[in-house]
Amino acid sequence: MSNSAVKPIPEGMHSLTPHIIVAGAAEAIEFYKKAFNAIEQVRMPGPGGKLMHASLKIGDSTLMLVDEMPDCGGGASLGPKALKGSPVVLHLYVDDADATIAQAEAAGAKVTMPAADMFWGDRYGQVEDPFGHRWSVATHKRDVTPEEMRQAMEQMAQGRQ
C-alpha cells in the first residue's frame, strides 16, 4: 500500500548521499565531529559493537557510514585501509577552506594538498582522514567562464600558470 504523502526523497536529504565503509566507525564519527563540525543524526549499533549504520550532517549534507564487515554476506564490506587506498574523494564546500583544512589537520587528518587558489575559481586543498578516506575541501572564490577555464587549463598544461 502506498502513501502518497510520503516523499520519495526524505526531507533534508539530497539525491546523492555518500555512504562510506570505515574500520572504526565510532571513532570516525568523533573525528568528523572535530574535523568538519559533523552533527550525529543516527547511530545503529549491531552485534559485537560494530555500527550497522550511522548518519551525520556536515553542512547541508548527509554522510552515511558503517563499520567494516569483512564477512558480510554477498561480498566483503571493506574500507580504504583494508583495500590499500580509495579512488574516491569526498568533496566538501565550506566558508573557509584554509580554516577547515587546519581544523581537520588538528583533529588528526594528513594534509595531502595544501589549499591554493585554483583556475576554476575555488580555493582548494585535500586531506586524508585517519581512516583512509580522502577529502577535498573548497571555498568558491570567483566565477570563471568556460573560456577562461579553457585558457587556464591550457596554460597549466604548458606549465605557465
From TrEMBL:
Transmembrane segments: none annotated. PANTHER family: BNAUNNG04460D PROTEIN-RELATED, VOC DOMAIN-CONTAINING PROTEIN. Residues 12-140 form the VOC domain. Pfam families: Glyoxalase. This is VOC domain-containing protein. It comes from the Bacteria. CDD domains: VOC_like. InterPro entries: Glyas_Bleomycin-R_OHBP_Dase, Glyas_Fos-R_dOase_dom, VOC_core. PROSITE patterns: VOC.
